[in-house]
């Protein structure tokens, strides 16, 4: 973005990584290269799930109209990834793309967005574009970076946020940067007079994600707080969350706790665990805090009990609430 602000550009860019907030900021930075008065003629965006690639390439090969640069966005470039197109089959001109990459138009800036799925490095076109384009990988943003981005955003409007409030915001959103940035406008509005965002405002305005609710549910289960666990599970069912989805997130969370417990015993750090398990470092941080007081055998029993719930949900018509109650009673009996 600093390079783009200086007007330093390359003919072709490839943006990867599922980070909507950062993707949108990058798009705006590219857009700023084209003066407002020229955008009608010198900017175009093409969705590869509905438009043939050849149409975008034809545009890219055209000279800019009364301007210095032409900007072409190629969105949802699924043909570069392992994903397949689910709609009507579109015949994309991959050979034409290979020819363009060999001799890109110097007055055009072509930006491919392959932000869903993984790049398929087996494909010739992917190998070629990696060599020809400026590749920008938008990886998961770390907790420290998120805190910095939030504080910077708030400072621009002369706001501050309490440390406790920021911690709660991260917990409620699961450190999803896009979710956090979407929540900030209403937090600013609610704190317009004081210009300081406090924890009670975050608690009132930012809803817990399913992951956060499940995190609390896991703590209730492992803390043997049967009434609290049942009440929270009941609330999730009443808010129309699918029982199978709730259970899947529970299984995933217990699997993470077990893996974290084992890896911590073997001397792994937070960063190395996150890297090994390919999960966000903030999730690992919370897991490491949780497993300190937990027995591995108890975690294993809870995990196996949830696997049994999953089987029952898929193969029987038993009530999910009853299955969870039975799971809690059996778990408490086993670890008593």
TrEMBL record:
Task: Specify one Pfam family.
Answer: DNA_pol3_delta_C
Give the species this sequence originates from: Secundilactobacillus angelensis
Q: Domain DNA polymerase III delta subunit-like C-terminal: where?
A: 211-331
Q: Identify the InterPro entries for this entry.
A: DNA_pol3_clamp-load_cplx_C, DNA_pol3_delta-like_C, DNA_pol3_delta_N, DNA_polIII_delta, P-loop_NTPase
Q: Which NCBIfam families match?
A: holA
The UniProt record lists the EC number as: 2.7.7.7
Q: Where is the signal peptide?
A: none
In which family does this protein belong, per the annotation?
A: Belongs to the DNA polymerase HolA subunit family.
Q: Does the keyword Nucleotide-binding apply?
A: no
Q: Which protein, by its recorded name, is this? A: DNA polymerase III subunit delta
The GO molecular function terms of this record are:
DNA-directed DNA polymerase activity
Entry keyword set: DNA replication, DNA-directed DNA polymerase, Nucleotidyltransferase, Transferase
Q: Which residues form the DNA polymerase III delta N-terminal domain?
A: 13-137
Which reaction does this chain catalyze? Answer: DNA(n) + a 2'-deoxyribonucleoside 5'-triphosphate = DNA(n+1) + diphosphate
């Amino acid at each position: 973005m600093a390079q783009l602000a200086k007007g330093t550009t390359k003919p072709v860019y490839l943006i990867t990584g599922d980070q909507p907030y950062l993707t949108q900021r990058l798009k705006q930075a590219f857009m700023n290269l084209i003066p407002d008065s020229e955008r009608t003629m010198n900017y175009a965006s093409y969705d590869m799930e509905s438009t043939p690639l050849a149409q975008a390439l034809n545009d890219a090969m055209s000279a800019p109209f009364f301007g210095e640069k032409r900007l072409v966005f190629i969105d949802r470039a699924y043909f570069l990834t392992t994903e397949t197109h689910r709609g009507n089959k579109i015949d994309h001109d991959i050979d034409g793309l290979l020819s363009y990459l060999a001799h890109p138009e110097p007055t055009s800036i072509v930006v491919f967005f392959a932000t869903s799925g993984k790049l398929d490095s087996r494909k010739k076109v992917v190998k070629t574009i990696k060599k020809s384009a400026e590749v920008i990988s938008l990886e998961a943003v770390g907790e420290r970076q998120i805190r910095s981005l939030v504080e910077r955003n708030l400072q621009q409007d002369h706001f501050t946020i309490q440390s406790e409030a920021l911690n709660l915001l991260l917990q409620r959103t699961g450190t999803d940067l896009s979710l956090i940035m979407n929540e900030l406008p209403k937090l600013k509005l609610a704190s317009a007079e004081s210009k300081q965002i406090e924890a009670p405002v975050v608690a009132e305005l930012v809803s817990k994600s399913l992951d956060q609710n499940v995190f609390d549910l896991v703590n209730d289960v492992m803390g043997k707080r049967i009434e609290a666990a049942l009440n929270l599970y009941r609330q999730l069912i009443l808010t129309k969350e699918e029982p199978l989805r709730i259970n899947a997130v529970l299984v995933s969370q217990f699997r993470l706790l077990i893996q974290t417990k084992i890896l911590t015993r073997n001397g792994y750090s937070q960063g190395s665990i996150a890297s090994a398990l390919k999960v966000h470092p903030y999730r690992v941080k919370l897991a490491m805090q949780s497993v300190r007081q937990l027995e591995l055998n108890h975690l294993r029993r809870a995990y196996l009990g949830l696997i049994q719930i999953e089987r029952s949900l898929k193969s029987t018509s038993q009530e999910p609430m009853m299955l969870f109650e039975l799971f809690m009673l059996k778990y408490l009996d086993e670890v008593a």
